[in-house]
Amino acid sequence: MPIAHPLEPLSASEVAEAVRLLRTASVYTATTRVISIMLKEPAKELVHAWPSAPTPDREAAAVLFDNALNTAYSAIVNLTAGILAGVQTAPPGSQPTMSIDEQIECEQAVLASPEFKAALKKHYGIEDTSLVMADIWSAGNYGTEEDRSRRLARPLCFLRSDATDNGYARPIEGIRPVVDLNLMEVIRVEEYGQWALPPEPGNYAATRVESFRDGIKPLAITQADGPSFVLDGHQMRWQNWKFVIGFNAREGLTLHHIRYIDQGQDRSILYRASLTEMVVPYGDPALTQVRKNAFDVGEYGMGMCANSLRLGCDCLGYIQYLDAHLCDSRGGALTIPQAICIHEEDFGILWKHTDRRLPDAPEVRRSRRLVVSSISTVENYEYGFFWYFYQDGNIQFEVKLTGILSLGAVHPGEKPKYGTLIAPQLYGPNHQHFFNVRLDFDLDGVANSVQQVDAVAEPVDENNSFENAFYAKATVMETEKQARAHLKLETARTWKIINPAVTNAVGDPVGYKFMPGDNSFPLASPNAWWRKRAGFVNHHVWVTPYREEEKYAAGDFPNQSGGGAGLSSWTEADRAVANTDVVFWYTFGHTHIPRPEDYPVMPTAYIGFLLKPNGFFNWNPANDVPPSEMKKSSCCGK
Ligand SMILES: [Cu+2]
């Protein structure tokens, strides 16, 4: 079957063919796990030359891991030629993402462990492990030889009171099993003391809630003529926007080749946009909690943890879904049906003006946005990733945080300093969520520059005698070290990506503004173990020259890594970044001091950023949006 666009993700049959070719590799043995298989994107020049130039070869990039050898491999297969194109052994100690199979097998290993059972009996008098939940948690790296010499997990365990209740309400606080994922067995059980199980249930399931509020009448969203978007394979067209929707086991949802048809001209904006890493460090020094930090992209795989979305619940209106084609760790087909949701939303007023002198006043236009989203469940927590496209050229990314807090038990009467008591003897430790997004801009061509824009007050002198003047000071980022930056509220700091060679109607370079949203600074010391592995949290903004292999902010193998990889090390080279193919990286953090209202399931919290055309168009590109049909209000039957 012909492939419509060179950046479409691998189909189920392509994944199966890649597995077949990978199995021919000499390093592929009975103890090999397939960690991930994803499209190996063709060289950028070939994509930009397409469709005039021929469609590039379809290739897949895979990560393999041999449990017997504790060794990772990166492999490339050429699907067009039907050959295994190359296999590389990863540096010693590289631990790839934990697979879904390992999540399940790890829990089984804990429940079967005589040592774990003995600890459970000793602390809680329980012999039956059938109600125990063991969530795989990454082991991290704490500077010991063992951190690198084994493939480890350090699960957190909980005890349900029955088969369907919320097990997270009852943390088994004092017991931490450590699992060797290569042997798939518990190698030790750490015991830190005795905590009673918190006494109260925390149920949220519809079958468990005793009564529901009333008064909610149906709210129907109908699109009698269908949606305004056209989806062809994974190629989207909507309201002058064109882009390709991708998906892979590691990053989850990705967007590619984002273009805007501006008065008939096909203009490139972003070549690729994705979440490259995120880390959730916990802020409690208690021995049961201190090692908790999860790199949800590099250790768990955001795509691997994606949900199958349900109409009317996750998404409302006229929905188009896309399936995600992955594989399990033995190479078996693994399709997540309806992993990506695409729909339109009314988004209030796009623009409005009332000229009291004109008979047709007011002029008002409704805003419509296109939403492309996916949601991942990483054990207790949920993350929704929502990309929004607007009619005025804006692109927005929003992360929705929900799910269940990672909870701990405290003694009766104890008020935790490093967290919040949310129910009797149950607390949510303080933590942060740091996300990193990679934005490969190609504004009207690949050679772009990044300006840091600070609003600064004019000095008070004879030119500013009323002391009111301020201006936007734009500084072009010349090198990587200069471009490392933090948000700055004092100057309302933003960044502008420009193409210095292309000017707009007023003679300025075309540009897009990066508008940050909420953010945080990391609260752990720079010497904290997790921060050594998460150098990307050291700055909110990073700019690098495009390199195909520089994809993930904490490096290729952050799991159990000794640290130093990724953005923090690449940018030490201090390469030139002006008027070249630039990549803009943004780290944004959500500081979560838990509330009782976050329990049992946390109402959604939101964090993200906005990309806004800034001299990219010659005027409001949404000036041509037609007025909506005037409708009588249905309010009160009038
Ligand atoms: Cu949180």
The overall pLDDT average reads 96
Structural class call reads: mainly beta
Compute the separation of the termini in Å: 55 Å
How large is the count of helical segments? 9
Beta-strand segment tally? 31
Task: Report the sheet with the most strands, covering strand number, pairing sense and barrel closure.
Answer: 19 strands, antiparallel
- What small molecules does this complex bind? copper (II) ion
Overall morphology? globular
Tell me the β content.
35-45%
How much helicity do the residues have? 10-25%
Q: What are the low-pLDDT stretches, counting only 5+ consecutive residues below 50?
A: none
Q: What do these coordinates show?
A:
It is a single chain. This protein is mainly β. The protein is 10% helix and 40% strand. It has a 19-stranded antiparallel β-sheet that branches. Strands 1-2-3-4 form a four-stranded antiparallel β-sheet, covered by helices on one side. The structure holds copper (II) ion. Copper (II) ion binds next to β24.
